[in-house]
Amino acid sequence: MATIYRKTAKGHSEIETRAQRLSPRLRSALILVDGRRSDDDMHKLIASQPEETMRLLSDQGFIEVIAITQDAPATRMAAPAQAAAAPRLPAQVTATGAASPPANAAPSAAPAQSFETTRSQAVRLFTDLVGPMAEALAIKMERTRSADELRPLVQTAQTIIGNARGGKAAADYAAKVLGSPGG
User: Fold this and answer.
1) Torsion-angle region of 71 (φ positive above 0: left; ψ -120 to 50: alpha; else: beta)
2) Are 171 and 129 in contact (CB under 8 A)?
3) Are 40 and 56 in contact (CB under 8 A)?
4) Which of the residues 37, 44, 100, 177 has an alpha carbon 20 to 30 A from that of 28?
5) Where are the domains of the chain?
6) Do the beta carbons of residue 88 and residue 178 sit within 8 Å?
7) Whole-angstrom Cα distance, residue 26 to residue 76?
């Protein structure tokens, strides 16, 4: 059985304001909580005392359980398929910065949801690749309200990933988030 956590309002507030002055270990773990990763995944990402760290964040009200899955291996195997099918930015942004709707776009409120999904994916992949050093840029990415605001931050993230993990990792990140290699 796997447990999935998400940040509470108190957790989001702490990320933005640092009012509670969490230790670096707890703050780094809080940043990684995204409502998708299981406790097993979190334990792999948290370097020191993962069980205690998650318990403290929960006990102090920074995170909460949103799901307990019965069959964790089946859930994890489905995750890559879901990630591959995740919607891209709601509009392809041209070199001039003008947005054009995707060819298969349906006239509905779906683009806002697509943007939210894409933004979340961009932040999650970036923090997975860079770790706690991704904090400042990840927060800026989470605050964006449009594809136009997100795109330059994704390009900055791509540069950071390229410096930390190499050009292939950066190109893979851009392809997953923007839908085209190299941004």
Assistant:
1) beta
2) no
3) no
4) 177
5) 2-70, 109-183
6) yes
7) 25
